[in-house]
């Protein structure tokens, strides 16, 4: 949860224009809730208009502290960008496309945030998604390759990590 504090202090620099104040307030209002019964690593929902990040501490522990930090920062990205409610009113085909775009936006948020404060977390996520390759959790999430490519694209030029082991270019392939 130290990532949460980092997210709060840097939120204003990661959001654009008139959304800064609203995004910062959403981040302040976040309530993280541990739930061992959650089948996903973490999920962001809105309850009574306030963002709640439910996370499974057992799954987080299995992932290790670096990858857990990335996934938590990713959930804060959903909050910062106001992802939520509106996606549920979309037709299924539109929903899948919208949710995949939102997942990539949240990955980019986490990458930009952690590149300067917790590089090991970004590198852990890059390794994790590169290993996933063309597979995806479900039709609402991009493939591991797409997510790894987004992480690389969102890193500041001076923060580019070395290519993952087994990759000649560092760019994941599908």
List the helices and strands and how they pair.
Layout: H1 2-14, H2 19-29, E1 31-34, E2 42-47, E3 50-55, H3 57-63, H4 65-80, H5 92-117, H6 119-132, H7 144-154
Parallel strand pairs: 1-3
Antiparallel strand pairs: 2-3
Helix pairs in contact: 1-2, 1-4, 1-5, 4-5, 4-6, 5-6, 5-7, 6-7
Short précis:
The chain has 174 residues and is mainly α. The protein has seven helices and three strands. It has a three-stranded mixed beta sheet.
Mean pLDDT equals 81
Assembly status: single chain
Total helices: the number is 7
Q: Helicity, in percent?
A: 55-70%
Query: What class do helices, strands and sheet pairing give?
Result: mainly alpha
* Poorly predicted sequence stretches spanning 5 or more consecutive residues: 1-16
Radius of gyration: 15 Å
Strand order, main sheet: write it out. 1-3-2
**SSE series:** HHEEEHHHHH
Summarize the biggest pleated sheet: 3 strands, mixed
- The counted number of beta strands is 3
Q: Approximately what portion of the residues adopt beta-strand conformation? A: 5-15%
Shape: globular
CA-CA gap between termini: 33 Å
Give a verbal description of the structure.
- The chain is mostly helical.
- Helix content is 56%, strand content 9%.
- The protein is built from 7 helices and 3 strands, in the order ααβββααααα.
- A 3-stranded mixed beta sheet has the order 1-3-2.
- The N and C termini lie far apart (33 Å).
- 33% of the residues are buried.
- Mean pLDDT is 81; it is low at 1-16.
């Amino acid at each position: 949860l130290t990532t949460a504090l980092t997210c709060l202090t840097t939120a204003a620099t990661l959001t654009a224009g008139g959304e800064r104040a609203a995004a910062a307030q959403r981040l302040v209002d976040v309530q993280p809730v541990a739930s061992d019964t959650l089948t996903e690593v973490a999920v962001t929902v809105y309850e009574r208009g306030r963002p709640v990040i439910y996370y499974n501490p057992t799954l987080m522990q299995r992932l290790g502290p670096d990858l857990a930090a990335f996934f938590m920062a990713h959930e804060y990205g959903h909050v910062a960008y106001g992802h939520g409610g509106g996606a549920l009113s979309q037709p299924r085909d539109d929903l899948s496309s919208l949710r995949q775009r939102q997942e990539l936006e949240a990955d980019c948020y986490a990458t930009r945030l952690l590149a300067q404060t917790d590089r090991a977390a970004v590198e852990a996520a890059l390794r994790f998604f590169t290993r996933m390759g063309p597979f995806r959790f479900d039709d609402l999430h991009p493939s591991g390759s797409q997510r790894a490519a987004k992480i690389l694209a969102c890193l500041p030029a001076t923060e580019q990590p070395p290519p993952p082991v087994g990759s000649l270019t560092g760019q994941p392939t599908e």
